[in-house]
Amino acid sequence: MKGGENSGDPPLGGAAPAEVYLFAPELDLVADRATGSYPGLERILGRGRARACPAGPWATLRQLLGADPEATAVAPVSFAGEVGMPEQGCLRLAPVGGRPEQGEVETVTAAGLGLSLEEARSLAAAFDEVLGNGSLTMHVPDPRRWYLHGVPGWRGGGAPGTPPEHPPEPELLRLLSEIEMLFFQHPVNQARAEAGQSLVTGVKAWGGGHPAGVALREAPALAGGEPWLSGLARLAGGSHSPGVEGLERGGVAWPVPVEAADTDLPGRLEEAWCEPLLQALGRGRLKAVSLVTRRRSFTVSRLACRIPWRRPRTLRESLC
């Protein structure tokens, strides 16, 4: 893909041709459970030219934008996008849960917990009171996505569903263990147990870093619900929109935050993103659309969309 690790093309900027890069890495995790029909999504995957993304989606995105990895750590940039400008180091947190099933504990992701904002903030308040010691604070802009502000330089692990980029620091591991014990006895979990709901057993920490100036040669149009993009737009002076309407002249979109991705992801991409982007491609408003998953990118051009399909490929066939 353009601007990627294996390409000599310059990073994406305002003067680049009208191309949209759509990031949806969790598609690789849900493709084998997808049961619906997704014509637009399958059209991009089936007709697109596939390329490997060995560096992973976050590194691929940074390479595409020409962004410095140290200056664009996921947690502080995301924090800037939906909480405020961070003053100290941050970690991005995803609550995780457990549900007893026939004597075993089934792990439940942030998307599957069904936490309310009130429940999440009650747990965070308990952390601030008991473990924060006046220096660490938990922020909860979304029940599925939390932040730990004030960390001394921890970087945590990898994004949810991926191997750790960095081994969690020993001090962080101890804190995560203390969080598990704190949450176990919390009234939120007691009420959820009585209601037969999954318990919040802890948090997964990742994306840590310190706030730093963001220097991009040019800030393209950014769109979608992933807060890293809205934070980058705020720090770099670019534009950000929640939906596809901000990408008429190309840009980058990450529609669904990694913690919120579930088996409904293909349907959400289909209606709100793939169909309108393919329509714009067919009308000549865009040069190409690239869909980036966890392992590959699929680039479909206007010409490729016009070529008759010999054999349509399903989501499962394209990604599994």
3D architecture notes:
With 320 residues, the chain is of the alpha/beta class. The strands form two sheets. It has a seven-stranded mixed sheet with strand order 2-12-11-1-10-8-9. Strands 3, 4, 5, 6 and 7 form a five-stranded antiparallel sheet that branches. Helix 2 crosses helix 10 and helix 4 crosses helix 9. The radius of gyration is 20 Å and the shape is globular. The N terminus is likely disordered.
Give the topology string: H per helix, E per strand. EHHEHHEEHHEEHHEEHEEHEEHH
Number of strands: 12
The end-to-end span amounts to 20 Å
Taking Cα atoms only, what radius of gyration do you get, to the nearest Å?
20 Å
The outline comes out as globular
Largest sheet: 7 strands, mixed
Q: What kind of oligomer do you see? A: single chain
Strand order of the largest sheet: 2-12-11-1-10-8-9
Structural class comes to alpha/beta
The percent range for helix content is: 25-40%
Mean pLDDT: 88
Task: Count up the helices.
Answer: 12
**Which residue ranges are poorly predicted, with pLDDT under 50 across at least 5 consecutive positions?**
1-11
Strand proportion, as a percent range, falls in 15-25%
List keywords for this structure.
34% helix, 5-stranded antiparallel β-sheet, 320 residues, globular
Topology summary:
Layout (H helix, E strand, L loop, with lengths): L18 E5 L3 H4 L8 H9 L1 E4 L4 H9 L8 H9 L6 E13 L2 E5 L1 H4 L3 H14 L6 E6 L2 E7 L18 H15 L2 H8 L4 E11 L12 E2 L3 H10 L3 E2 L9 E3 L11 H18 L5 E5 L3 E6 H5 L8 H5 L1
Parallel strand pairs: 1-10, 1-11, 8-9, 8-10
Antiparallel strand pairs: 2-12, 3-4, 3-6, 3-7, 5-6, 11-12
